[in-house]
Structure formats: C-alpha cells, structure tokens
Design goal:
Blueprint: E1 4-5, H1 30-51, H2 55-72, H3 74-87, H4 94-143, H5 154-196, H6 198-218, H7 221-246, H8 248-254, H9 257-260, H10 262-292, H11 295-311, H12 320-358, E2 377-387, E3 390-400, E4 405-409, H13 416-422, E5 431-436, E6 439-440, H14 446-452, E7 453-456, E8 462-463, H15 467-471, H16 480-489, H17 493-497, H18 515-529, E9 533-538, H19 545-559, E10 563-568, E11 579-584, E12 587-592, H20 594-600, H21 603-612
Helix pairs in contact: 1-12, 2-4, 2-5, 3-4, 3-12, 4-5, 5-6, 5-7, 5-12, 6-10, 6-11, 6-12, 7-10, 11-12, 16-18, 18-19
Bound molecules: adenosine-5'-triphosphate (ATP).
The site of adenosine-5'-triphosphate (ATP) has 12 residues, from helix 13.
Main location: membrane
Subcellular location: Cell inner membrane
Family: Belongs to the ABC transporter superfamily. Siderophore-Fe(3+) uptake transporter (SIUT) (TC 3.A.1.21) family.
Length: about 625
C-alpha cells in the first residue's frame, strides 16, 4: 500500500536516516564540553528571542503570579494569628479571631483569582506563540528546497514541528508560576519568620541551604550534557521508530528484520544506556535532595531547635507555630526549582532546534521574474555539491530539445537523480545554470515553473484526502470532468468506479492504493497539470508484468509530445529514446542514440552486455 500523509503535511522525506551522531556519555573532551555549553547558551538566546515579542504579557503574568503567591500566604498567617489568640492566656478576643479568619479567606480568594488570571494569560501567550511558530515553520517548510527533505526523516521534522513546539508549553504556561512562587513565597516567609525569631529562622534555613547545595551538584555542565545526550537519544528513537514503521513492508518483503531494524534497536539501546547513565549519576543526589527538602526532615529540625529555645525560656511557645507552618513553605519551592530547571533546559534545546529549522535557507524567490519562451531545457556548465567541497555533478552541458526524450543512465550514485532534480528546483545548482525556454529556472516564479515542469519520482506521496483531491493537487480548481479524464488516461478510472464513494473516497480511510495504483495516480496528477516538460524516475522494477504494462500504457499517454528527462534503470526501456546520456561519477561520459552508442562499443554497450549478456539486442520500448 502506498504511503498516505495527512493533508496538513506539506511534503515528506523519502530517505529517513536519523543522524548517527552520538554524544558520548562519559569522558567528554574539552571541545565537546565547550560545544555543549555553546549549544546551551545558543538555546537560551534562541528562547529569549522567541519570547521577546511576548515579554509585556509574560511580565504581567509574573506580576499577577507574584501577588497571588503573596496572597496565598495570608491563610497561613491567619492560622498563626488565630493560634496565638486562642493559645494566649485570658478570654478569646472574638473580634480579632474573626478578623484573622476573614483576612485569611480574602487572601485565599485573591490567590485563586490572581493565579487563575496569571495562568490564563500564560496560556493565551502560549497559544499565540504556538500558532505563530507553527505558521512560521509551515511557511519555512513550504519554502525550503524540496531536496532538503530527502535527507530528513518525517520523524525528525515532526519532532520539531510538533514535539519541540509543545515543549515550550510548560515554560510559558506553567514555569512563570513555579518560579515566582519559588522566589516570592520563601522570601516573604523568611522575612516574617526572621521577625518572629531569627535564631529558629536560621535553623529552618538549614534544609534550604542543603537542598540548594545538592541541587547545584545536580546541575553541573556534565549533568546538562548528559541530559542533552538523553534528549538526543530520545530524538533518534522518535526518528527511527518512524522509519521502523515506514519500513515494515520492506522488512516483510525481504524478511531481513534483524538487519533492517538495526538502527531502531541501536537507537533504543543508546537511549537505555544514556538514560541509565543519567539516572545512575543522579539517583543518590536526587534522593538526598528529596530527603533534606521533605517536610518531616524540616519539621524535625524546627521542632528540635524550637524545643531547645522554649525549654531554655528564650522563646514563647506560641512562636513555634509560625515555624511549623511556614518553614515547609520555605523549602517546597526549592524542590520545584529542580524540575523547573529541567523543563527550562528542555525548552532551550527545543528553541534551538526550532530556530535551526527556521534558519534553513529557503529557495530564493526570483528577483527579476522571467517567463520561459518555449520548452527547450538547457543545462549550462552545471555543477552541484550537497556538501561544500564534495561536488557530485561536474560541468554538465545538456540540451533537451522540445518534444524529445532524453534517458539518463549510469551506475548507482552517478548523479542521475541529482541532475534530474535540478530542473524542478529540488536544489539550485552550485555552479552554472539550468534554463527553461531561455529563462534561468531560478528566475521563473514557482507557479509558472510547476505548470511547465511536472515530475514523478520513485515515491508518489498521497494525502489523506479524496482521490479527486489527490489527483487535482496542483490544479485545485479543476472540474470533476477533467479529473475523470486524467484518471481515465492514467488507467485509474475503472478502479475508482469500484470504490464505495468513487472519486470522493478518502485515501487512508475508505481505501488504500497499491504501489502501481499510486504510480498511476501520480501520472493522472501530472496529466492534469498538463506540463510540457516531464521529469520521470522510471522506477517500476517492483511492478508485476500486468501492472508494469498498465503503467507503461499510462506513461505512453502522459509522455506523448512532451519534453522528457527519464532516469532509466532498465536499459531495454530506452532503446527508442531520442538521446541516451550515460553518466559516471557526476559527469556525462557518453551521449547519443541507442544505435550510435551501441555501435561505438563504449560504456552503454558494456552496461548492456552486463545487464543482458553478450550479443543481446533491444527488447523494450522507450516512453514515447
Ligand atoms: N541528500 C544528499 N545529501 C548528500 N549527498 C547526497 C544526497 N543525495 C545524493 N547524494 C550523493 O550524491 C551522489 C549522486 O547521487 P544520485 O542519487 O544523484 O545518484 P543516482 O545516479 O541517481 O543513483 P541511483 O541510481 O542509485 O539513484 C551520490 O554520491 C550520493 O551519495
């Protein structure tokens, strides 16, 4: 069954290979440590940059949260005052007691209101940031070179668009509250307790000092690096699990589960190793931190210190009450700080990845748009390098005369796909230029280019939409009759008629398509575009004889009279091409008709003999 993508997916990678970079969990080199620190600092800068437009509202949320946190202390103070009143010798002053209760209740109410307002504001900002980031990412993903997707897995792209954008939620919607409470509540409690008895306040601060010290030990650069390695390992699991699922059909076909799933298993093993290392490195300290910050430990210290002061007569017993209630409030936010920092670090890493994706160079839009005159295609001294310094195409000069078929042949890795993909601008050449109708393709506006150049590469992507919408993808306002005519010509109409909802059947829901059917749908798409120039990857080796005959028939209809550039994998299909171009190591090494090249006894003749045996003659037909 062919791959079906949700409609919202812009496009997708076909060769999902996750990065194999694995940051070692131990013994970091100085350079690795510097790189990690740089990455963290960069993540922080990115995060600040992302949040800058919302700083006013985030500050307002912080202020509301701070006042709310202070108001939240009122009920505790009310209980303390009430306790003092009730424990004091003599008759109870009912007026004072009720005043404390009212103040406590009012504080509680205010806290609820302000915290809700701060949370609501945070969530509003969060919603806006999400929307704006997703829009920017969608816009950028729609402008990046199509070729950018070919070395990225859909898991990787989805991890940023979905996962990393979601990771920012905690930071924006919840972290301000946690951090404000972590600062405001202990500070106010400290001041109050110090006014009651500074000596017992110092005792109550012991767990805080211990907790902060342990937390500092837990937040070393080493720990941060390990955390990043765990995050990266998790990312690789995400990417490879998508590949794993996408590759299941291949595994079933070839029965090589062990080999094919090696990457997934390695990613899972790596994650387990990093995670265990991360947990093992912090388990002791984390337990110690939990212990010293726990209410029983705090109360034990305060009770012991308080008992000493009370028994020696230097503190009234009623003064112990505020310590019993507020000393725990002193430490609780320190505990929250640990989780909060983890979330902030995760958000920094996400911001960095989002920024990286938003920084992908888009294909430049034409500065001086030009209209092609005619359909003549010309590659002029074209060179291309995926990576600086490693050119895969050198000095290609090639002309496709209108209405002719040019077949590209050559060994795997010769550069055939790269050469073909430069015409529909999957990438722009790093040297030279590609011209269509005399205009550089870089100067032809996208809409114009894609009306003139249609391409069918190996993997026909289908959207989770109706068959009619899938066929009319590039011509959304096409009439139903035009869609049907294209489907008929592509040999798809009879199949569609058997479906429950005909052309309105939703792919991936009402029905699925086989590989051959998907290819015919791709042909119907191209027919509807009616582009005069076609770039085809003739990848039909998987098809059985009947399917191949059907696809060939459909291609015959599609290709008639058009200028074609065909990547040929099987030589018998190119014998009637107007021109055969043999490529090796990124260069054109031979060019001519089948008979000319066979008569010359050069590379094509060698390849022919290798595929068909000595003395074999042509058996097939080119797409004409
Ligand atoms: N996205 C990419 N990033 C880096 N290098 C790439 C990328 N795609 C292809 N290459 C390299 O460019 C060279 C040419 O590859 P290309 O796919 O164009 O060859 P091909 O002749 O079409 O091969 P095949 O017949 O196997 O598809 C190869 O060395 C390949 O490894």
């Amino acid at each position: 069954m062919a791959t079906t993508e949700p409609v919202s997916t812009l496009t997708d990678g076909t060769d999902g290979s996750a990065s194999d970079d694995v940051t070692p969990a131990s013994e970091p080199s100085g350079t690795a440590r510097d790189a990690t620190a740089d990455q963290a600092a960069q993540g922080r800068r990115m995060l600040i940059g992302l949040l800058r437009p919302y700083r006013g509202r985030l500050a307002a949320a912080l202020l509301l949260q701070a006042v709310g946190a202070l108001a939240g202390l009122a009920p505790l103070l009310a209980v303390i005052e009430l306790g003092r009143e009730l424990l004091a010798p003599g008759p109870v002053d009912h007026g004072r007691a009720w005043t404390s209760v009212v103040w406590g209740a009012a504080g509680l109410l205010l806290r609820v209101l302000l915290t809700a307002a701060a949370g609501g504001l945070g969530h509003l900002v969060d919603g806006e940031l999400h929307l704006s980031l997703r829009r920017s990412l969608a816009q950028r993903l729609g402008r990046v070179p199509l070729g950018w997707y070919s070395h990225r897995s859909s898991g990787e792209v989805n991890g940023v668009v979905q996962g990393d954008v979601d990771t920012l939620h905690h930071l924006i919607a919840h972290a301000p509250g946690e951090f404000t409470s972590a600062v405001v509540v202990p500070a106010a409690s400290f001041v109050y307790l110090a006014c009651v008895d500074w000596r017992l306040t110092l005792v109550a601060l012991i767990p805080v000092v211990l907790g902060v010290s342990v937390h500092r030990l837990l937040s070393t650069e080493e720990r941060r690096r390990e955390g990043m390695a765990v995050g990266q390992a998790m990312g690789r699991i995400g990417a490879s699990s998508v590949e794993f699922v996408e590759g299941i059909s291949v595994v079933k076909t070839f029965g090589g589960a062990g080999r094919v799933h090696q990457r997934y298993r390695r990613a899972a093993d790596d994650f387990a190793d990093f995670f265990l290392g991360y947990v093992a490195g912090s388990a002791g300290l984390a337990s110690l931190s939990a212990l010293v910050l726990s209410p029983p430990f705090v109360l034990l210290l305060v009770l012991t210190g308080g008992t000493v002061l009370i028994t020696e007569g230097s503190m009234p017993p009623a003064d112990l009450l505020p310590f019993l209630l507020l000393s725990v409030a002193l430490t609780a936010p320190v505990a929250a700080l640990g989780h909060g920092m983890d979330n902030i670090h995760a958000a920094e890493r996400s911001a960095d990845r989002i920024h990286e994706m938003l920084s992908v160079e888009p294909l430049p839009r034409p500065v001086h748009p030009a209209a092609p005159h005619g359909d003549r295609v010309e590659y002029r001294a074209v060179g291309y390098a995926y990576d600086d310094g490693h050119p895969v195409l050198h000095d290609i000069d090639l002309v496709l005369e209108p209405g002719t078929t040019t077949a590209l042949v050559g060994p795997s890795g010769a550069g055939k796909s790269t050469l073909a993909q430069l015409l529909p601008r999957f990438f722009d050449p790093t040297q030279g230029s590609v011209l269509l109708g005399g205009a550089d393709v870089r100067d032809i506006p996208d809409e114009e280019l894609y009306q003139r150049v249609a391409f069918i590469f190996q993997d026909v992507r289908l959207l989770r939409a109706t068959i009619a919408e899938n066929i009319a993808l590039a011509v959304p306002d096409a009439a139903r009759s035009e869609v049907v005519t294209a489907a008929r010509a592509a040999g798809l109409h009879d199949l569609v008629q058997t479906l429950p909802h005909g052309y309105d059947s939703v792919l991936g829901e009402d029905t699925g398509l086989s590989g051959g059917e998907a290819q015919r749908l791709g042909i119907a798409r191209a027919l509807l575009i009616d582009a005069p120039v076609l770039v085809l990857d003739e990848a039909m080796s998987f098809a059985d004889a009947k399917t191949e005959a059907e696809i060939r028939r459909a291609l015959g209809v599609l290709c008639a009279g058009r200028t074609q550039l065909v990547i040929a994998h099987r030589l018998q299909t190119i014998t009637r091409a107007d021109r055969i171009v043999v490529m090796e190591a990124g260069r054109i090494v031979e060019s001519g008709t089948y008979s000319e090249l066979m008569a010359a006894g050069g590379r094509l003749a060698d390849m022919w003999q290798a595929q068909h045996g000595p003395g074999a003659g042509p058996q097939g037909e080119a797409h004409r």
